[in-house]
Amino acid sequence: FWKLDWFASACFVPGAMLRRVFLAASLYWNGAAEELVQGFPLFQWSDSGCDTGYHHCGTLEFCGDGDTVFGYRMPGVTECSIATAPMIRVAPGRRYQMTFKNMVPDTISNIHVHGSHISGVTNGDDPDRLAGSGECLKYNWDFRADHMGGTLWYHPHFHTETTKQASGGAFGLFIVDEVPGLTYDAGVKAWLSNELYLVAVKVGTLKLANGKAHDEIGMVQGEWYRLRIAFVDPNGHRSDVQIGDAADVCEIHAVAHDGVWRNKVPALESKSVYSLTGSSRIDVAIRCSAAGQVPVYLGTVGVEMLHIASLAVAAGATTAATPFVNGGQWTPPRPPYLQDLRSEMATGTYEVSMNGHSVNGVAWDHHVPLHTIEYGSVQEWTLRTTSGHPFHMHIYRVQVVSGCTDHEVGEWYDTISSKGICVVRFPAVNFGDRVVFHCHVLPHEDAGAMAWLEVKNSPAADDEHVEPYQCMANSDTSTTGVNVDDGSTTSHGDDSTTGESVATTSSADGGSTTSSHDQVSVTSAIGERTTIPTTSAAKGRRWAGGLVPLVTFAGATMAAGSRA
Q1: Which residues, 6 or more positions from 161, have their beta carbon under 8 angstroms from its beta carbon?
Q2: Which pTM value belongs to this model?
């Protein structure tokens, strides 16, 4: 552990808090045997025992200490995967039923598949559905046969506590495979199977690569790879990912943004630096010509860059893999909902401006939509203030039409953050009803910078809403695999899974603090504080299981909400 102690001092952050994150991030090494993909446990779907109409089913457990450490694991695994959650893979044209099991004491949570084009109501990707400690939620994910293959991610989306849980390590890669049956050039097909992964994480001053202070990613000299890059920062703002010190060491071409193929693949220009928002993903084609260590940095170019990973390039046999077709670009197949809209006539327009606690001056209210549109319409939205307040919309991705200096005109994204005004378009098709959009600076989202869009005349959802249900005894929720030593008082319960005594924490003063009548003060896992007006924090929250109980965590009390 000497490396952890050294890193804690080097980061100038509270050592106890940092050690807790690092210890938890490495705990999966001691757990049950799992199939690993470049260090990430691969989520195991079952093809039997599923509800009628579903091809695959499985269970994902939400774990942690209920304070500053959170993560996910599969059943039978005793340790909690923090910042190295199971990698979930799905295929277009298949129906999946995921049981989300909340194992964390005194905690409410859920799961959101960021970048997915699936239903946002009933048992789909609805952030208003919540599971309390010891409860389960069934999510029905119906991936259309034409769902674009790409790099997504998942994380909690419980309003007022998203920052806390994501900052504690609760996030993971979510991969949608390519649409079956599509014909690719033989070299491209070989290249698509050469996958590598880089999840760059920034939480306060802490920076990680694939859950480690420094990761090493193996490559064969002269071989083309598809490198899927995801950047996670709960504070949402842009950072730079830089690969290599010299531009001629590796060829690096962008091929997809936020899980959507570029219009032409690959990008003609080879770049070593990519600027990403705290929820963005980019896929690149990469080939390194010389053996040796190629550094990977995270930070701000010209200000501060931290060496978080290395590409370990070694001599070896190469294949015919290439991202080019006959040495040039190719046009990837696109589903109808991602066709070019720049020459289409927009049938609806809207403007969005966000701040740290509202959208268009209105704080989050799950009862009342901020805007209403027609199903089937082509929407043109003008986005303002996205440089400090990245815009993210569930279900629908948006195409950049004009402006947006930090994005490429004509390309599709699910998160927009740019200097100046951005004009984007999207078609309101396939799904509708209720579409959430918000600032992806998570403390802002928690403080009320979130809204929803009502899509009128949407097709009816084809599954029946299932409420959360008790799926374990209260004593089964535990902090198994997470050691906590921060000076707080503890009470002990029995973990029926391991038979060990399990600690749950409370603050040393016996509760939480409220700063005034009209706001509460929140301390996230990274020790940063923000204030949440009670008009948004204490507002009635929809929770299918009934009343939302009083939620207390380090430095804050969230007042109970009411059932919708």
Answers
A1: 107, 108, 109, 446, 551, 553, 558
A2: 0.81
